[in-house]
Write a structure and sequence with these properties.
The complex is a heterodimer of chains A (176) and B (126). With 176 residues, chain A is mainly α. Chain A has seven helices and no strands. In chain A, helix 2 packs parallel to helix 5. The longest helix of chain A has 29 residues. By secondary structure, chain B is mostly helical. The N and C termini of chain B lie far apart (63 Å). The chains are: A mainly alpha (176), B mainly alpha (126). The interface between A and B is large, with 36 and 43 residues.
Chain lengths: 176, 126
Amino acid sequence: MDFVTIFTNLSSEYPVFLDTIFMVFAVTGIWVSAGGIIAIIKLGKRDSGLVTPGAHIAWKLIGGSSMIDLSIWGKAICGTLWADADPMGISEYSGGGGGAFEPAMMAAIGILVLTGWVTLGRAYMMAAKMGTVSIESRGDLMGSIIARLFAGSALVCTVHIATAIQASTGMGFFSQ
Amino acid sequence: MKQKRTIVARAAMAVASVALLSASGTAFAAASMLSDFALGWKDEIKVILPALLLGFAAAGIFMAAWGVISSITTKKQQQPLTWQLFAICGGAAAVVIPVIIMAVSGSLTSGQGDASGQFDELGVKY
């Protein structure tokens, strides 16, 4: 039993982990959207302290329903930012199924990919908050949403970016 | 120096508890894997989420009914309506929350999203 075996064994669980991540974000999305619809009732409460209840509802609906479709949005963002419209499925990281790369390295990268999906989901959770923060802090929030979109999609496309760097510099991280 | 000793003690405790847990795991339980936890959550969510949405729907019905009654009494007293219209519209919308979520996600992803698949998986009827 060494670390290679441990990582490779753990990697066979990745598809279930990713399903769970998507499920947790879908449930959060339903909860957030439901809160947004309930906020329609609060529109009538003039002294509620919400600056713009319309934006509050709209951002909650947008963020919440994007979280339900997280996998589609992740693919779209990877396609826009990293020219990789179809990132590797999580099962390709598991059980040494990557082929070219070392199985244990692929298994370790698979953890990064899972982290990337969580980061993307967090971006949409913060997008749902856009309507509730004050106008001054909206820019900060926007910055951290965009940073999370970049970082999350880069983590999902780790292998793709590494091979791109390898192709353009001629210096590889992987022994292919 | 004192701090260093504490760190060593803590690390030893952590390692010991992990070792004990794994020992008891192999002793008592048949191989229960991390992915089994995930499946357990999914089973729980399938029960909780529809009940939660029913709760939202019930709150919506309550608010809409209250809005109707309140608007009648307010009008009888020759007062202008304030929050009642929003309560009626919002209450009606709260009953069909899954449909609204599907509509929004459908228009955001131009119909390519898989919201209905997620709803099926989570046991939400729409």
